[in-house]
C-alpha cells in the first residue's frame, strides 16, 4: 500500500479494522505526500534523507494482553533505572508493547481506544495512530507516586510505534520519568506520550532520549493541563542520528501553568530538532520555556517554537527562550521563535541566541590562571547548570557531562 507516498508492506491490526477513525486516517495517509524540506515544518532538518520504504512493523497474531507482561521484564532494566531511585510503577516497552510491568495496587495500566491530538496532525502522528499495535493508558491514583517508562525501541529496519496516555486525576501529585533507548540501524521510532492532568494536580515529567546513534526518532508529547494544575517538564536529548520531538502543551483550564525545559548535546553528524507549541486556551494561564543546547562536530540543532494566546485567555503570561552554544566550526543551530497573540492584557516574550562561548568569559577565567581549554569546559558545564538546579534533574547532571566528554 501507499503511505505518505512510500510503498510499504504493512497492515492495520485486525482488531482495529472497521474503526471509522482508523479508516479515515488510512485514507488520509494514502493521499498525503511524504514531508519535505520544502515545507516550513520540516525545512531545517534532514527529512529528505528519511523514508518508510523497507521498514517493517512487528505483526502480532492477536491483541496482546497486559497480563502477559512479567516481572522478568522489569528485572532486566534494574540497572538502567537505579540512578533515578525507587518507583511505585515500572513499565517496560519493546516495539510499543509491554514486556515488563510492576504497578502499585491503585495504579492501572490498560489497553485503550486509539486517540490522537486535536487539530491538524502530522503524517507521522497518523501513522502511529493507525498502525500502532496496542494503545496503552496508565491511570494514576489520587495520591503521590513515582513512575518510570522504559522504551527499549525496536530492531533493525523496523518502524517502532507506541502510544501511551497517562491520566492524572484531580488534586494529585506525580513524578514521571521516561527513558527512550535502543533502536538500531535504519530503524525509525515514533513514540507518542500524552499527559492528561486533572484540576489542581501537580506533575513532574522528565524524559531522556538516548537512542542508538544510528537510529531515527520522531517523538510526540501532548499535554493537557486542567484548571489550577501545574506541569514541569524536562527533556534531555543526547541520542539518535536524527531525533525530533514535537511538544504540544495545551493549558485548557484557568490558572494552569507549565514549565518546559530541555537540554540537548549534539556530536558527530547528529541532527536534534524540537518543535514546541505553548497553547494558552484559558484565563490567567502561564508557561515558561527554556531550551539550551551544545553542539560539537558537524551536528545540527533546530528549534521552532510558537506561543499561542487564544481569544479569551486574558491575564496569561508566556515566555520562550532558546540558547545554543556552537563548539566547532562545522556545527550549527537554527532557532525560530514565533508569537500568535489574539488577546490583550497578556505578557509574552521570546528570545534566541546562537554562538560560541563568549570571549570575555574566557578572558575572565584566563586572568585567573585557568588554561583556555579548561576554561571553555567550565563555561560549557555552567551553561547547563541553569537547567539542573532542582530535583529530580540533578540526577541527569552526570549524563550531560558524560555526553559532553564523549562528543566534544
Q: What does this entry look like structurally?
A:
The model has no long low-confidence stretch (mean pLDDT 91). This protein starts with a strand and ends with a helix. It contains seven helices and 21 strands. Helix content is 15%, strand content 41%. The chain has one domain. Helix 1 crosses helix 4 (123-131). The chain is α/β, with parallel strands linked by helices and 408 residues long. The chain has helices at 20-31, 71-75, 78-81, 123-131, 359-366, 372-385, 397-407; strands at residues 2-3, 6-7, 89-94, 97-102, 108-111, 136-140, 144-151, 159-168, 173-180, 188-197, 202-209, 216-225, 230-237, 242-251, 257-266, 271-280, 286-295, 300-309, 317-326, 332-341, 347-355.
- The overall number of domains is 1
Mean pLDDT: 91
Shape: globular
What's the helical proportion of residues?
Answer: 10-25%
Q: What is the beta-strand fraction?
A: 35-45%
> What does the main sheet amount to?
10 strands, mixed
Q: Are there runs of 5+ residues with pLDDT below 50, and where?
A: none
Tell me the structural class.
Answer: alpha/beta
Amino acid at each position: 500500500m501507499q503511505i505518505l507516498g512510500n510503498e510499504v508492506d504493512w497492515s492495520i491490526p485486525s482488531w482495529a479494522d472497521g474503526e471509522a477513525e482508523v479508516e479515515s486516517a488510512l485514507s488520509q495517509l494514502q493521499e498525503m505526500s511524504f514531508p519535505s524540506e520544502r515545507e516550513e515544518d520540516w525545512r531545517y532538518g534532514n527529512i529528505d534523507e528519511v523514508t518508510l520504504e523497507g521498514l517493517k512493523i512487528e505483526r502480532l497474531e492477536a491483541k496482546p494482553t497486559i497480563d502477559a507482561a512479567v516481572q522478568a521484564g522489569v528485572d532486566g532494566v534494574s540497572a538502567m533505572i537505579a540512578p533515578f531511585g525507587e518507583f511505585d510503577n515500572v513499565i517496560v516497552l519493546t516495539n510499543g508493547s509491554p514486556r515488563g510491568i510492576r504497578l502499585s495496587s491503585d495504579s492501572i495500566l490498560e489497553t485503550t481506544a486509539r486517540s490522537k491530538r486535536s487539530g491538524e496532525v502530522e503524517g507521522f502522528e497518523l501513522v502511529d495512530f493507525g498502525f500502532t499495535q496496542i494503545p496503552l493508558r496508565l491511570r494514576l491514583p489520587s495520591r503521590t507516586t513515582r513512575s518510570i517508562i522504559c522504551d527499549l525501541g525496536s530492531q533493525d529496519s523496523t518502524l517502532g510505534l507506541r502510544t501511551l496516555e497517562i491520566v492524572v486525576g484531580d488534586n494529585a501529585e506525580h513524578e514521571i520519568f521516561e527513558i527512550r533507548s535502543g533502536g538500531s540501524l535504519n530503524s525509525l521510532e515514533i513514540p507518542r506520550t500524552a499527559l492528561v492532568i486533572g484540576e489542581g494536580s501537580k506533575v513532574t515529567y522528565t524524559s531522556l532520549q538516548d537512542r542508538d546513534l544510528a537510529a531515527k526518532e520522531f517523538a510526540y508529547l501532548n499535554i493537557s493541563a486542567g484548571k489550577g494544575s501545574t506541569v514541569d517538564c524536562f527533556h534531555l536529548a543526547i541520542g539518535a542520528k536524527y531525533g525530533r520531538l514535537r511538544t504540544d502543551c495545551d493549558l485548557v483550564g484557568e490558572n494552569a501553568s507549565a514549565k518546559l525545559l530541555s537540554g540537548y548535546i549534539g556530536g558527530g553528524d547528529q541532527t536534534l530538532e524540537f518543535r514546541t507549541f505553548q497553547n494558552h486556551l484559558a484565563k490567567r494561564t502561564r508557561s515558561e520555556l527554556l531550551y539550551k543546547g551544545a553542539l560539537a562536530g558537524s551536528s545540527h540543532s533546530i528549534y521552532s517554537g510558537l506561543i499561542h494566546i487564544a481569544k479569551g485567555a486574558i491575564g496569561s503570561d508566556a515566555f520562550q527562550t532558546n540558547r545554543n552554544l556552537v563548539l566547532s566550526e562545522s556545527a550549527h543551530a537554527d532557532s525560530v521563535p514565533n508569537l500568535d497573540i489574539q488577546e490583550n492584557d497578556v505578557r509574552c516574550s521570546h528570545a534566541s541566541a546562537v554562538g560560541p562561548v563568549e570571549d570575555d568569559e574566557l578572558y575572565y577565567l584566563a586572568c585567573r590562571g585557568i588554561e583556555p581549554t579548561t576554561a571553555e569546559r567550565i563555561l560549557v558545564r555552567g551553561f547547563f547548570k541553569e537547567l539542573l538546579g532542582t530535583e529530580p534533574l540533578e540526577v541527569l547532571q552526570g549524563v550531560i557531562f558524560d555526553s559532553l566528554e564523549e562528543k566534544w
